[in-house]
Amino acid sequence: MAPVPDEHQATLLIVDDTAENLNFLAELLLPAYRVRVANSGIQALRVAASAPRPDLILLDVMMPNMDGYAVLARLREDARTCDIPVIFVTAKNATADEEHGLDHGAVDYIVKPLHPSIVLARVRTQLELKRARDLLANQNATLEREIAERLGENQLIQDVSIHALARLAETRDPETGNHLRRTRKFVQALAGHLQQQPRFAEFLSERNVHLLAMSATLHDIGKVGIPDHILLKPGKLTPAERDVMKTHARIGADAIAQAEIDTERPVEFLTLAKEIAHYHHERWDGTGYPEGLAGDTIPLSARLMALADVYDALTSQRVYKAPLALGEARDIVIAERGRHFDPAVVDAFHAVIGEFEAVAGRYGDDAPGDAR
């Protein structure tokens, strides 16, 4: 019984060097399918790559010049034809021959002499399988697009949330918004250089470098908890006032930790932001605050932020000091290698100093705000 034609007929390519076999298969399949024919391997490759491309190929194995195995190999090498299923049609009926054909990538193996009902059943089965594969591929592509759109929306919400929190800190901090932009870009430059090193490569994935740069804007979020008479004091702080100011590190970390609890599940950027807020005043030699951590016990995120923050403080105007020249600030940072700063981070700073100086020039405190 011949199969009922589909609304959109499948296209079959029959390849055989014998006219009798081509005619037999064409007459058998034409009632239900569009049929194209080729009488050599070279012609088969040309037809298979042209429109309308076949949904299924029935391929003779024993042909002169280029046999079926060679044709199939060439089909698999071409992006236009690599996914077309191929049924070998051959007089070679030994089990080893069939295994050989399937090993070469054929989806089925029909032995001559041909029986119409067997040919039709095998063709119908392979076309149904191809339709199922194509449907699944289309559904996966649609799902991937939807997931990408959702991830993009989530990333945008996350970025907006970070900016909103950072803006909140700005409303009470005498430092300008450009300080946040500069330090974010400093952290990004350092992390981008260090990710090339095996020691840091696993942690500093492209995603984590992005999250670090975004989370860096929250490093001083704890300053919202510092009294105005200390935070806004136009001059140097007394030792007692400085002790109060130091609490901003723990205040910021606690606030972010509470946000983590409220989310009811881990959020990557909150974890990094908490580390940065809590530990960015720690020193490599253990003399920093608030925990007195030393060396690699200080999270890498905070070690990056520490250098970025200090360099920016050195090169920025404050009510109690003038900015240092960029070269002088660079020398001070390098001199603190192994004391205030992680040696590897200082080495990265030295390698990307040009980027630091370009950022400092572009986003100076007298420059207009720029959200990039």
Overview of the molecule:
With 372 residues, the protein is of the alpha/beta class. It folds into two domains: 131 residues, 3-Layer(aba) Sandwich (Rossmann fold), CATH 3.40.50; 191 residues, Hypothetical protein af1432. 56% of the residues lie in helices and 6% in strands. A five-stranded parallel sheet has the order 2-1-3-4-5, sandwiched between helices. Strand 4, helix 4 and strand 5 form a beta-alpha-beta unit. The longest helix has 55 residues. It is elongated, with a radius of gyration of 34 Å. 34% of the residues are buried. The N terminus and C terminus are likely disordered.
Give the SSE layout.
Blueprint: E1 11-15, H1 19-29, E2 34-38, H2 41-48, E3 56-60, H3 68-77, E4 86-90, H4 95-103, E5 108-111, H5 116-170, H6 177-194, H7 198-201, H8 206-215, H9 228-231, H10 239-246, H11 248-263, H12 268-279, H13 300-315, H14 326-335, H15 343-351, H16 353-362
Parallel strand pairs: 1-2, 1-3, 3-4, 4-5
Helix pairs in contact: 2-3, 6-8, 6-13, 6-15, 6-16, 8-12, 11-12, 12-13, 13-14
How are the strands of the largest sheet arranged? 2-1-3-4-5
Q: Write down the overall mean pLDDT.
A: 87
In CATH's first tier, which class of the largest domain applies?
Mainly Alpha
Element string (H = helix, E = strand): EHEHEHEHEHHHHHHHHHHHH
Q: Please name the CATH topology of the largest domain.
A: Hypothetical protein af1432
Radius of gyration: 34 Å
